[in-house]
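Data availability (excerpt). All sequences and predicted token strings are deposited with the supplementary files. A representative entry, UBC core domain-containing protein, is shown inline so that the format can be inspected without opening the archive.
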Amino acid sequence: MALTRIAQEHANLQRDPLETCSAGPADAGNPRQWVGHITGPSDTLYEQRDFSIAIVFPQDYPMKPFQLTLTTPLSHPNISDEGQVRLAELEEKHWSPVFTVRSILVCLQALLANPDPSNGVLNSKAARVDFTNQRQEHVEPTHNGKRIGGKKYLIDMSRPEFEVYKNLTTVEEKDKFLIENADLVRDE
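Structure token line:
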């Protein structure tokens, strides 16, 4: 059953590939070991970076989750120094046989866009500081540097609170949001 399911998933990914990720057998002789890549999501600190992944399927797949590892090093609160991904869907207590490689890759893409430090795996204080510093470097000026109330603001667009901001369409709406959420922005 496992090899049939693995072959079906590979065929589905080839027939209808994902735009920002791919995966498939590392070699024809071992269909249980896959390699692939995922491109960092837009408007994040991982934007346009390409990350290699490795997938190992257990004997009793899909009844048990596969192991997903990022083989490209990165600082992320939900990915260990060894590349192990902390994703709820891959934990045995949350795993369901309806999950597929495709659905888990989409979840990984979402995790890269929205880190969850409360469910993190970072083992060292230095790694947490490195991730925080990277987030601080990923800031962009509002409205091409427009000044609001005499100040120019920089905002960390990777924070989940700014998903609302990204969807605002008028300058007035954006200004109002920044004024109401002044504690989430910093002066230039």
